[in-house]
Amino acid sequence: MNNRRKLGTLALLSLILTVVLLAGCSKSAAPSASPSESPSATATPSASASESATASASESPSASGLEGKVVFWSMWSNTEPQAKVIEAAIAEFKANNPAVEVELKFNGRDINKLIKPALESGQQIDIFEQDPGSALANLKDHVMKLDDLLQQPSVGSDGKSVKDSLIPSLIEWVKTLSTEAGLEEGYYAIPQQPYAVLFFYNKALFEKAGITAVPTSWEEFLAACEALKQIGVDPITFDDAYRDLFIGGYLGSAMGSDWTDSLVKDKTGEMWKDPIVKQFASDMQQLQEKGYLSKKIAGNKYPAGQQDLALGKAGMYLNGTWLPNEVAATAGPDFRWGSFQFPTVSNGNGEGGLQGLTFGAQGLLMNKNSKNVPAAFELVKYLVGKKAQQGMADQALAIPATLDTEWPAPLAEAATAFGNAKVNMPWGNGIDNGGDFSTGTVIPVFMELATGKLSPDAYVDKMSGAAKKFYGG
Questions:
Q1: Of the candidates 410, 271, 329, 388, which has an alpha carbon nearest to the alpha carbon of residue 35?
Q2: What is the pLDDT of residues 287-336, one digit of tens each?
Q3: How many angstroms separate the Cα of 121 from the Cα of each of 105, 106, 369?
Q4: Of the options 3.30.420.10, 3.30.70.100, 3.40.190.10, 3.30.565.10, the CATH number for the domain spanning 197-356+428-471
Q5: How far apart are the C-alpha atoms of 209 and 231, rounded to whole Å?
Q6: What pTM was estimated for this model as a whole?
Q7: How far apart (Å, rounded) are the C-alpha atoms in residues 248 and 250?
Q8: Does the structural domain 18-196+359-411 have CATH classification 3.40.50.2300?
Q9: What residue spans carry the region label Disordered (predicted)?
Q10: Please, which residues have CB within 8 angstroms of residue 133's CB and are 6 or more apart in sequence?
Q11: Beta bridge partners of 69
Q12: With CB atoms 3.0 to 4.6 Å apart as the test, which of 112, 162, 303, 358 could cross-link to 197 if both were Cys?
C-alpha cells in the first residue's frame, strides 16, 4: 500500500485507549488505501464461498424479506487480501439474504477517478469505498446521510448498534468531516481499516542494540540512534515518498499542526526565523553528522527505504500502519514489528507531543440515490461486522474498526499511540499545506539540510527568503 499525504482537530481520540487495551500511497488531500496498484476487475464471491453460502441458505432460509439488486464498488483489486475478506462477507450476506443479488466490482485505486462520473451519469452504485475526507469534499452531492441507519443492530457485536460497535474516535472523526465539506453535520461514511503514521522499527535490532524501551523524547531517540549505529545498522531511513513526514513530524511534535500549517503559509518569511526552526535545523545537522541518517536518503526512491527496513539494513522508518503489509514478502513471517510515535520535542508550545497523531481510515459510503437502501445497508453491516473486521486484521494486517477485535500482531504496539493521542493531526502535521511552496521548496530544502549541504543558519535564511519570495509573487 503506497498511501500518502492526505488527512481536523479531534478531542475524542483518547477514548480509543480503552478499546486498544482490550484488543491488544502519490499525494492527495487525505491518504487513501494504497497497496500496489492493480488492474480493475469485476468479481463475485468465489465458488467455494458461494457454495458455502448456498448451503447455509438452504439450512437457514432467510426471513429478512430483502430482495432486489445491490451494486458495490470496491477500492481494492481482486488480487489483494482485502478482496478475499469482502468476498467472504458478501457470501455470508447472501446466505442470509438469498433474494438479494449483489454485483461486486473491484476497481482498485482507479475508483478515485471513476466514481464521480459514474455517479453523475446515474449508473447504479449503491455502496462504494473511498477515503472519507476526499469523498465528502468531491462527492457531497451524491453521499447519503447515515445517522438513522447507524442505529440498526450490528452484525457480530451483540447488543450494539452499528455506530456503537465501531471505535468511537473513528466514527466521530468521520462526523467532523461532514461540516468541513459543507454538508449538514452527521455521518456520511462508515470508517474501516484505520491507519496512523508512526515510526516502525525492527524489534530484533533494538534488542541486539540493547534498547529496552521505545523512545518517547528526542533525547531518548538520539540514544536509540547511537545504539543502533554501534551495531552497524543505519538508525533512520526514508525515501522520496515520505520525506515530508520527518520534517512535519518534528515541527508538529514541537508546535502542533496549526503552527506548522501557518509556517508554510507565512507570506512574510518571518516564522521561519522562530527559534524552533533553528533548533530543528541543528538537530537535523546532528543526525547527519553523527551518521544516524542513512547515506542513501538523498537518492532513495520509493520503496527503497522501507525495503532497507524490511531487510534489516535500517532500524527505523517513519510511515503508515499499512507498512507491514506492504513489505510482508520482503520481511518474511518472522520479522518482529514494533512502532512508536514521533518523540516529543523540547521547547515547543504545548500543542504537539504525544497527544497529536496523524490518523484516519478508509470509508464505506452509500449513494443517496440508491433505489435499494434497506438491502444495501444490510450488506454494509456485514462489511463492517466483527467477523469481516477480524478478517481484515488477520488476512490484510489492517487495524479493525470494531471494538473488542484483536489487532494484527505487527500493529499491536500502535495501540499505545492511539491511546496517547487526543488530537487528529493532518498528513505531515500540516507541512504539505503550502501547496507548491511545500512541494517545490520546503521538502527540497529540507533534503539539502538532511544531507549536510546547508548549515542551520543557512537553512533558516534560505527558507525565510524563499517564503517571502514565493508569496511575494
A1: 329
A2: 999 999 999 999 999 999 999 999 999 999 999 999 998 899 999 999 99
A3: 17, 19, 12
A4: 3.40.190.10
A5: 6
A6: 0.77
A7: 6
A8: no
A9: 29-63
A10: 6, 7, 29, 30, 177, 180, 181, 360
A11: 101
A12: 358
The 10s digit of each residue's pLDDT in 384-435 is: 999 999 999 999 889 999 998 999 999 999 988 887 888 889 999 999 999 9
Nine-digit cell string for 316 = 527505523
Q: What are phi and psi of 146, to 5 degrees?
A: -110, 10
- Work out the mean pLDDT of the chain and round it to a whole number: 88
Comma-separated ranges of CATH 3.40.190.10 domains in the chain = 18-196+359-411, 197-356+428-471
Q: Mean pLDDT lowest for which of 132-141, 201-210, 372-381? A: 132-141
Q: What does the pLDDT read at residue 56?
A: 37
Size of the chain in residues: 473
- Give the model's pLDDT for residue 170: 87
In this structure, is the dihedral angle defined by the CA atoms of residues 51, 52, 55 and 60, taken in order, positive or negative? negative
Using CA atoms in the order 400, 406, 409, 411, what is the torsion angle rounded to 10 degrees? 40
Helices (H), 24-104: 47-59, 81-96
The grid coordinates listed for 454 are: 546547508
Grid cell in block for residue 420: 496517547
Buried b (16+ CB within 10 A) or exposed e, 291-318: ebbbebbeebebbbbbbbbbeebbbbbb
Average confidence (pLDDT) over 234-245: 96
Count CA atoms closer than 13 A to 52's CA, side-chain side. Answer: 12
Give the pLDDT confidence score for residue 423 in this predicted structure: 85
